[in-house]
Amino acid sequence: MYPAKKTVVDHLGNWTLITAAGLLPLFFLPVTQDFYDINKWLLLVLSVLMITGLWTARSLLTGSMHVAWNALSKSLGLLAAAALVNLLVASPNGVEAMMAPFGPITFIALFLMTLLGTTFFDEKSRGTLSWVLYSAVSLTGLIAIYQFFGLSKVAGLSGLPGLSYLADPLWTPVGTSVGLMIILAVTLPLLIGEAMHHKKSGVDTHMIAAVLMAIAILGGLILTAIQAFPLLISGMLPYWAAWQVLLESYKNLKQLFVGVGAQNFVTAFTLGRPAILNITPIWNTRYTLSSSLLFHIATVYGLIGVAGLGYFFVSLIKDKTTLLVRISKWVALASFLLLPPSFPALVVITIFLMVHGPQSVSHMAISKKPALSYGVGIAILVIMLGSSYGLWRVYGAELAFGSSLKALENRDGTGAYNAQIKAITLSPNIARYHIGYSQTNLGMANALAGTASSSATPDQVKKDRETATQLVQQAIREAKLAVNLAPRDILAWENIAAIYQALTGVAQGADTWTVAAYQQAMQLDPTNPVIRLRLGGAYIGQQMLDRAAGSYIAAIQLKPDYANAYYNLGFVYRQQKKYLAAAQALQEALKYVTPGSEGATQGQKELDDLRTLLTEKEKSVLDNPESAQNVQPEALPTPTPKKGVTEPLSPLQ
């Protein structure tokens, strides 16, 4: 039962939670790199900090602590504990792990929200929270209908500066179509139940409101599903691939129990990525989330995470309640098992469970233990102040980095440079800030070299060279820092390889470091043909043609319809004067290029040029490979053609 007497603190706690619940599905800010999850995450954490502070104040004022210790809070507490163990044991970069949408801060916040926030409720505030959340979700449904019919384009909103994202018919303030569909599908049975309940009780206004909201939600759900489901089916990580990634990560005993780390799913994916994905349309996609919440938690948190999530699933369905509430809970469970994880959906479902789940509240008198109570209060205050300071730095860095990306879009290199310095100063442990800063430094150095004027004074030329040299050194330094912060991050290694490759011929030893970085990237992403393609380009830069050919052949073996790998292999063979092998490679490349495209025209011209260098017997082999008797051209991998998989030919990489 709830505390008998409500105070000002109780009302503040109620409205903090109600306001956060109403804002969360709709809240986004186009000022950070990620408009959606990071801002919703911040809203959740700040709301929980406020609730914790209010709960502490109430406990000290009343001399009694109230907690909602039930199946929901216990299950989220277990997930939070698993996430904390993972943070201490498996996450090399704790800051990035804590900021992850499904990181330890998220589960701690949800645990505290259910443990402490529920104690501010009474029957009236539960109803208010429900209707506020229903209204917010129904508004997301109306926005989905609005976007489906392209009304943003009709109104000219999508053409306004900073609002171009509204041109996407699937845009939603929730952040993703998957998250939107989950929230709509979970809310719909609850609203139908509200309409039926108020019809029986004779409250027509509430019944009409529920029906109108249900119509908006149903319309948004249907129209979103029509557009999003084909994209979801073709674009999500297949379940069998997620299973193989999981099993590969579990070969490491520590990862079996505690997982790979909250921020490291992409690392697990690249290491365990099945090579057969290379013959699918998603062959060049890197996934930061698994196929479902279950697969994701199992991968990043291991068996301890699975145990916590399993208990959470049990808390979803074990309570006896009305049929429509049970249907809503089963829909939520199905989404956790079958759909890619969504941070806002997880939070909204948790709030609904707080309202429609067990409402028991335990209390413990502390008035007779003033030393203990004030000690606990001071400890909580210190934690809250430290957390608030950390959030200020983290979010300030996100704002600065988002500002740098806007500056880059506007071709303001100096603005981007200064904003990225600010982001790194506020939060120096985020690898992607250092990656972005390294690329900005290199871009500014290239721009400075490109704008150098022959008419400039010798002093100006000297100054520009010194500035460019400093920018190049900073690019290398920042790329190395990113690798040190995230030694298993494939993006960090690809970045440093690309930095060194761009500096080949400029910085001493850059070519050697390029090869070394790509080889390390290859260890982290062993079934990725693109890395082999780029490594081949690095070998060509060192005139190591045999190794370049081997790298391109390895790329083709991983992806038999890889046009660029065949094209580059043909280039190497031509340099080695193996003209028949070069022509055969180019002929294979043209099989996977869109007919009539610029790449196809270019490739055909090069093939015609190669034919002039062949003997009559070699031409016969090229035109009729099965008729070859005595001619033994350079061996080519046997391709497995796939219809409809074509790509443009590109310059050597």
Structure write-up:
It is a single chain. The chain has 653 residues and is mainly alpha-helical. It is 69% helix and 1% strand. The chain contains 27 helices and two strands. Helix 8 packs parallel to helix 15 (343-356). It is globular and about 95 Å long.
Taking strands numbered 1, 2, ... along the chain, how are they ordered across the largest sheet?
A: 1-2
Annotation, overall tally of beta strands: 2
SS-based structural class?
A: mainly alpha
> Major sheet: size, sense and barrel closure?
2 strands, antiparallel
Annotate the secondary structure layout.
Layout: H1 8-23, H2 37-62, E1 64-67, H3 71-89, H4 94-99, H5 104-116, H6 123-148, H7 151-155, H8 177-201, H9 204-235, H10 239-249, H11 253-258, H12 265-272, H13 293-317, H14 323-338, H15 343-356, E2 362-365, H16 370-409, H17 413-426, H18 431-450, H19 458-485, H20 490-502, H21 510-524, H22 529-541, H23 545-558, H24 563-575, H25 579-591, H26 598-611, H27 616-623
Antiparallel strand pairs: 1-2
Helix pairs in contact: 1-2, 1-6, 2-5, 2-16, 3-5, 3-13, 6-8, 6-9, 8-9, 8-14, 8-15, 10-12, 13-14, 16-17, 17-18, 18-19, 18-20, 19-20, 20-21, 21-22, 22-23, 22-24, 23-24, 24-25, 25-26
